[in-house]
Write a structure and sequence with these properties.
Chain lengths: ~150, ~375
Amino acid sequence: MTGQRIPVREGLLSQALDDLSGVTLIGSRCRNCGETALGASTLCQNCGGDELAVIPLAKEGTLWTYTVVRHKPPGDYRGPDPFVPYGLGLVELPEGIRVLSPLSCDVETLAIGQKLVFKPTILAGDKGDELVSFEFVPAEQREAPHER
Amino acid sequence: MSDDVVIIGTGIHPFGRFEKSYEDIGADAARAALKDAGVEWRQIQTAYLSRMYLPATSGPRVLRRLGGTDIPIMDIEAACASGGAALRQAMLAIKSGEVDLALVLGVEKMPRGFMDPAMIYSPWQIKMGMSLNPSYWSMRARRHMYEYGTTELQLAQVAYKNHKNSVHNPNAMYRREFSLEEIINSPLVCDPIRRLEICAPNDGAAALVLASRRMAERIGGNKPITIAACSHSIARYSADFRCPADSMSSTAANPGPTEVTSGEAYRRAGLGPKDIDCFEVQDTDAFCEIEIYEDIGLCPRGEGGRLVAEGRTEIGGEMPVNMSGGLISKGEPVGASHLGQVYELVSQLRGRSGLRQVEGAKVGLGHVLGAGGNCAVTILKS
């Protein structure tokens, strides 16, 4: 590893990043209203409450909606070069939150309701750093990694 | 009513792409509105300029071209609802009794292509590929199709109708009728939304002269158009999945911003959707228009696709929507878009819309919606 591993966003991922297999997304659950936000936060966006508990978010979810991005996004996009169309969707997790995530799979197979699994990924960082990001992949893809 | 606020003049600079500064584009629209109102610039007591992509103090930079003055001039920004936010501030200034004559000017000059993501998104969202506005619209469309059976053909029918309407609008950018086949075969931008089904950022300006009823009577020019309501709001908690959201609640059940804002506007105007003769709404993409039909009460939830398929929102239909051609064909100069809608509605209520005219139109509604769940709704009465 040439540079450091740093999270793509502070307060998004659960633990030290040297072993990615244990990493999850984290959320903030409001003790007042019970709503859950993505990432570590200090104020609840629903009720303004300031007592929030950091909780790990489940690794398994269900696809609530999706699109296929057919054009390279403008600006500092760190995905594959040359560009490859990719899935993007809202993944519903049991904590009462739907998380926007890139979907790594054959885009023609995407379907609302399909089971997905969280997977940390590495994007190219600056100055040789590794940016730890995330995506969701079809559950069967993870269980049978050699089929594809 | 004595505290009525009315529109006495409108002006527009066509929406498109021009080798011309935003100051010139804006000044053209402002001068046109003043001329239409029969009012001198020096009579105006306060001015608001709506814009999103222009530099600080764009208002004075544009309006000083009309001659030096010491009136308050300020910039207003509320994403795609900027024009509605500015119109509302001007209306409130007159309602307060402080001023009797105000100018509202929306102007924008934007680069071709996708909008600069750094304006809206965090660096991590840009790096991960979550920074394309149409991807958010598309995810809403996909879910609606799943829940209600809305079809890709129905999306194309919205784009078909709006492009067709724009042929008769000299202020629209494209002014070209596309066949349904051309639309449905145009390249996907973000599934299921296609290139001929989304609006493009561009340049343009629109301006209004607002007056108290008392002042309008004293000036005695155009027949005043009454602002029956002008409402602006931000989406309630998790009520609107739209850029730059990174997640949404699956437990909160708040009504969306269009439902809330149009509800408030209807209540203030003492009118309902059945009382409105014509509509101009935010068709940033074809699906968005279908969703808005439902949110402003033109049909029950899930039936928006059928409404367009049955032709009921065409100019000759029972509830015409986007007679001007909508943003899909005009383009979206963000700060000017709502005032462009109001320009069209005033023209409709004055019976001056030529081949786009809705017969006997007396009440019109304009609606915009954008980043952060910013929404504005204006209802006008002749």
